[in-house]
Amino acid sequence: MPSAFIILAALSWGFISIFTKKLTSYGFTEMEIVTIRVVYALILLFPLTFIQKKQAMFKIKLKHLPFFVGTGLLSIVFFNWCYFTAINQLSVSLAVMLLYTSPAFVAILSYFILKEKLSLKKFFAIIVTITGCTLIAISSSGGATSWNWSGFIIGLGAGLGYALYSIFGKLALKHYDSMTITFYTFLVATVSLAPFFHFWRKMSGFTIENHLYMIGLATVPTVLAYLLYTIGLNKVESSTAAILATMEPVAAILVGIILFKEDIVILQFIGILFILSSVFILSIKRKTKGDLSKRISKEC
């Protein structure tokens, strides 16, 4: 089931706090952690890509390079910069809420760029998803949030950057498979970040445990998550995939409750139910006349 790949990717993204909290305690800044994420992911992807299809998998046409600039630079790098900046200028909860405006951005961009239909069911699922994320955000801050216009606009930029992976990924899938797309996405991101954020200068005296957390960050919420998400995009519309990916905050909250002993309030629980409901709405398929006739013929 293609939707399952999207949901598994979202759940994998939801585990990112396990690794980021630990790496932050080691003294890394937010953008250094992002750089660790993409550099280590590229290191992991190189042998995987080479083994699967050897050198043929590294070949792309120059005219398709904009697709990977889109997924690597405009999506991953731009999204992370906007997200962390919004967290610094606004409350974390409001930044998360603005990040999850991405399904709305994807639905609109898909309509104009990918010519996907914006059905009533999809539109309703977007509203339900945003409502759920809003409830989680409000409850996380006790209803009090800091505010400034620059932070708000940059926060919306995080939602846009998050959405752009679905758009550029869908365009790239017309020419390349998921492994190639993921590899070049992180290659572009690494080239864009590594010259400016020298995280390795802080690695003197690191133990095996330190390195395992860095590798874990690159494996679970990065390589695995993006591969699953890109595979899912093969069969799922970009706008639908973006909505299904909002299972991530659900996973993140569960990780917080189970591992970090964070409390959950009633509004957060209701918000989780809203997000789960949007996934259920998208899973409902309308029976067509053709489907009905096939069922009748089988029964006869």
Ordered list of secondary-structure elements with their pairings:
Elements (H helix, E strand, L loop, with lengths): L1 H12 L2 H10 L4 H24 L11 H25 L2 H8 L2 H13 L5 H21 L8 H24 L5 H16 L14 H26 L4 H7 L2 H13 L6 H18 L5 H11 L1
Walk me through what this model shows.
The longest helix has 26 residues. The chain has one domain. The C terminus is likely disordered. It is globular, with a radius of gyration of 20 Å. Helix 4 packs antiparallel against helix 5, helix 4 packs antiparallel against helix 8 and helix 6 crosses helix 8. It has 14 helices and no strands. The protein is mainly α.
Overview in brief:
With 300 residues, this protein is mostly helical. Helix content is 76%, strand content 0%.
Which structural traits does this protein have?
76% helix; mainly alpha; globular; 300 residues; 0% strand; 14 helices
Strand content: under 5%
**Mean pLDDT, all residues:** 83
Principal-axes geometry comes out as globular
Question: What is the count of structural domains?
Answer: 1
Alpha carbon gyration radius: 20 Å
How many E-type strands?
Answer: 0
Series of secondary-structure elements, N-terminal to C-terminal: HHHHHHHHHHHHHH
Distance between the termini: 28 Å
Number of helices: 14
Major sheet description = none
Assign a percent range to the helix content.
over 70%
Low-confidence stretches: 287-300
Structural class by SSE content: mainly alpha
